[in-house]
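The aim of this short unit is practical: by the end, you should be able to scan a pair of folded records and say something sensible about each. We start with the first protein, listed as its amino acid sequence and then its structure tokens.
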Amino acid sequence: MLIGVLAVQGGFEAHLAMLRGLGAEVREVRVPADLVGLDGLVIPGGESTTIVKGIESAGLEEPIRAHHAAGRPVFGTCAGMIVCDAGHLGLLDATVRRNAFGRQLQSFEADLEVEGIGGEPLRAVFIRAPWVECRGAGVELLASYEGHAVAVREGNVLACAFHPELTDDSRLHALFMAMTTRARDGAPEGAGT
């Protein structure tokens, strides 16, 4: 399995390390050619405006949309969730509010019950975190915090408002890898979850 991590800005190194730890082959994505042959793509946290500008300047906007249109999964975390929303790349039928929980000083951690990862709560690190302001009927809620959607899935797009790569809990990345395996092998969505 070959998974790319967008590396134009933000915390991509921690995603690369976590995916390697789960046995994936990984590639930094900086230019359109880096998307060729990928089974899945992670759009990491960072600063959403800077990431969007980096995507545009590198000519990655249409290639990322083509990756998604071909049924290959995308996982957006924190700013990556914003980049995936309807107002940006349009990969997710949702509107995401930037800095919804506050600025840097309001960063926090919380235990979340996340649908589809089993058992124990997931420790979530929220840093200048967004939340899903509104979502289409096809967007499945996986986790909420204080009544706000903070993890969602729509088809082959998984998105969360926090940083799962900053803990030693790899279950969300494992869920993304399972989605990627199903997409690569042609299994129907929802099979095995």
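Turning to the second protein, read its sequence before its tokens, just as you did above.
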Amino acid sequence: MTCRELVDFLMDYLDGELADDPRRVFEEHIGFCPPCKAYLDTYRATMTMGKSACSDPEGPVPDDVPERLVEAILAARKQLD
């Protein structure tokens, strides 16, 4: 498996939907390729943060979020409604 191919299997791997043989090849590649291991770790962390940030969409906005970002998100949500 090449680094480029690894990306194609990433979501299935993280969702636990990768068949046994491709999963073994994926994990073998991760075992010897530090950049792909770092990519996987970063991707997992990003998914965790994203889920956490969206866990309570009506909850309070943290104080350190720029007001312009809040306004842009609210404007985008209005366009979707």
